[in-house]
Amino acid sequence: MNSFEDLKETAQNFIGLLFAGDFTSAAGKFDDQMKIALNEAKLQETWINTIIEAGALIQLNAPKTAEVESYKIVTIPCSFQRSIIEVQITFNKEGQISGLNFIPTSMEYHAPDYVDKSAFSEVEVTIGEGKWALPGTLTVPTGSEPFPGLVLVHGSGPNDRDETIGPNKIFKDIAWGLASKGIAVLRYDKRTFIHAKQLTPDMVDKMTAKEEVTDDALLAADLMRKTEGIDTKRVFLLGHSLGATLAPRISQQDNELAGIIIMAGMTRLIEEAILDQFTYLYNLGGNITPQQQAELDDLKNKVDKLKDPEFIENISRQDLPLAMPVAYWKDLHNYDPANTVKTLDTDILVLQGGRDYQVLESKDFKGWKDALNHRENATLKVFSELNHLFIAGEGKSSPQEYMVEGHVEKEVIDYIVEWIK
């Protein structure tokens, strides 16, 4: 019979095939009974339905093993953006897969100490209407109206309204923290999260940041202004990561916003940021493996191709970094955050984590600083110990750090409250 060490490796390879979308090879590891119970098409459907709401994979955790009668079981917990899914694989004596379970584990949220739950209430709202209407939550302070309002705009990827990453809920921290201090906050599920199953491949190919982010952010700001008890002249917008990068564009299209808050926004081209991120992550261990170097070389080649104006006109998704749609790249190439922010008359707050490896103080924050130099209505602040999620830590930041429970630092909450008020 196969040893547990061999079966652990087989289990990890099997999960790798699932993530690669190679369901033919994955189903080929089943015994005869499993091939009937869970054929290739059913395996694909089950896997996609399991992970569709889990978000991006952050890491595979250490395998756990068990033995029941003549079967050996390997369970690998997979940490995703919004949940942990345990992939439980049962092997027969011949080392074939004779059982497969996907077991989701939700992560409980614990409110930070700066939250006073008696200071606010929450109501469910709907942003927009029709096919792409989005469910959201409006957090309203108790006390005398009208309240200043803040709309939260997510980072890249299919984010929920709390911007859940592992056990952390960045937007819930901000909403509850600010509402405890008398500021109403609106957060909502992103279109690519709540309507993922309605997005056809053709729609995804044509999607740009306008459909993914901007359109819904504008609707949310409009809803906030129309909400009873909100000061219509004091509605602000806070973007995080991609949302922060696009905040100047959103403000350019909504001249009623009282101000924008840019939390970890990029001023570099997105492909340069992606290359920098992968280079950083592959160097965290000290030595880059030959495979990692090959992947970096391939990514750099794709980034270089994007700089050729003629090439981008005849490019396919497979030739692009992360296989992102061509329309998406073209849209972002036609947008310069630093130059756009210069055109705004509104108040601007730029916040940056000093330990952020995704959005860099030395490049992105410097870009905002250079663009807003000597502007009296612009405030810029670096929090040296905070990462991309504005959670405190030590040493070099890593994706694994996002799986440790923490909260948006109280100093950040207080800084935003003081700036708005």
TrEMBL record:
Pfam families: DUF3887, Hydrolase_4
SUPFAM superfamilies: alpha/beta-Hydrolases
Any one GO MF annotation of this record: carboxylic ester hydrolase activity
Annotated protein name in UniProt: DUF3887 domain-containing protein
Domain Serine aminopeptidase S33 as annotated: residue spans: 171-390
InterPro entries: AB_hydrolase_Est10, AB_hydrolase_fold, DUF3887, Hydrolase_4
Occurrences of domain DUF3887 (ranges): 11-100
Gene3D superfamilies: 3.10.450.590, alpha/beta hydrolase
UniProt superkingdom: Archaea
